Amino acid sequence: MVHRPVPSSGRRICTHSIRRSTDTYIRKWLLSNVDFQPSCLVADWQQFVADKLSAWRQTNLDWLHNFTGPMHIMFYDQLIEDVATHLQDLLRFLRLNVSEQNMACALEWREGIYRRKRRVISFDPFTSAMKQALRKEQEAVYDAIANSPHKSQALSVKLR
């Protein structure tokens, strides 16, 4: 999320990128639990997801309902699927002109030079009850976006 004045205009804007809650939880959990052993951490994991689910929903709804300036909403999954389109949409929203050469450079280097070590897990860490709760909260956030004053930007993106 970026909340900043636009250079030389004085207006405040917000760009808000929404990442799937499941990806966020797994990433945070793995970063904080280096020796991830599901058999001994099940209760901790379930509590962690429940706590983070509430925070994920509240953070997204807080930005949506309380930021009063222009807002551009992006979904992280869709951004990484089609970087060029979503980056161009963002630049248009920010009213920034970028040369074709600079755009080509940004797309070529979209992965950046710094990489975190990816840790692959070979099982689904979410129970059916957790998945149901995750879907419910995600739908609440997406419905709020679809019904918000910012929906003109959000509806240009598939919500589900």
Strand order of the largest sheet: 1-2-3
**Structural class assignment:** mainly alpha
Counting structural domains, the number is 1
Tell me about the largest β-sheet: 3 strands, mixed
Unreliable stretches (pLDDT < 50, length at least 5) are: 1-8, 154-160
What does the overall shape look like?
A: flat
Which CATH architecture would you pick?
3-Layer(aba) Sandwich
Q: What's the helical proportion of residues?
A: 55-70%
Task: Outline the secondary-structure elements.
Blueprint lengths: L1 E4 L6 E7 L2 H12 L5 H29 L4 E5 H6 L1 H12 L5 H9 L19 H19 L4 H4 L6
Parallel strand pairs: 2-3
Antiparallel strand pairs: 1-2
Explain this structure.
- The chain is mainly alpha-helical and 160 residues long.
- It has a single domain, classed as Rossmann fold.
- It is built from seven helices and three strands; from the N terminus they run ββααβααααα.
- A three-stranded mixed beta sheet has the order 1-2-3, sandwiched between helices.
- A hairpin with a 6-residue loop joins strand 1 and strand 2.
Structure described in brief:
This protein has 160 residues and is mainly α.
Keywords:
mainly alpha, 10% strand
